[in-house]
Amino acid sequence: MAEATSHEILSFSHEGRVFPPPPEFQKKAHIRSLEEYRALYAEAANDPDAFWGARAREELYWKTPFHTVLDWKPPHAQWFLGGTTNLCYNALDRHLPKYAEKTAILFEGEPGDVRKITYRQLHADVCRLANGLKSLGVKKGDRVGIYLPMVPEAAVAMLACARIGAVHSVVFGGFSSEAVRERMNDAGAKVLLTADGGWRKGGVVPLKANVDAALPHMPSVEKVVVLQRTKNPIQLGPKDVAWEKLVEAQSPTCEPEWVDSEHPLFILYTSGSTGKPKGVLHTTAGYAVYVSLTTRWVFDLKDDDVYWCTADVGWVTGHSYVVYGPLMNHATSFLYEGAPTTPGPDRFWDNIERHKVTILYTAPTAIRAFMRTGDEHPKKHDMRSLRLLGTVGEPINPEAWMWYRDVIGGGRCPIVDTWWQTETGGILVSPLPGATPTKPGSATLPLPGIFLKVLGKDGKEVPPGQGGKLFLAKPWPALLRTVYGDPERYVKTYFSEVPGLYFTGDGARIDADGYLWVMGRVDDVVNVAGHRLGTAEVESALVSEGRVAEAAVVGRPDELKGTALVAFVTLKKGVESSAELKAQLSAHVIKEIGAIARPDEIRFADALPKTRSGKIMRRLLRDVAAGVRTTGDTTTLEDLNVLAKLRGDEE
Ligand code: WTA
Question: What is the model's pTM?
Answer without folding.
Answer: 0.95
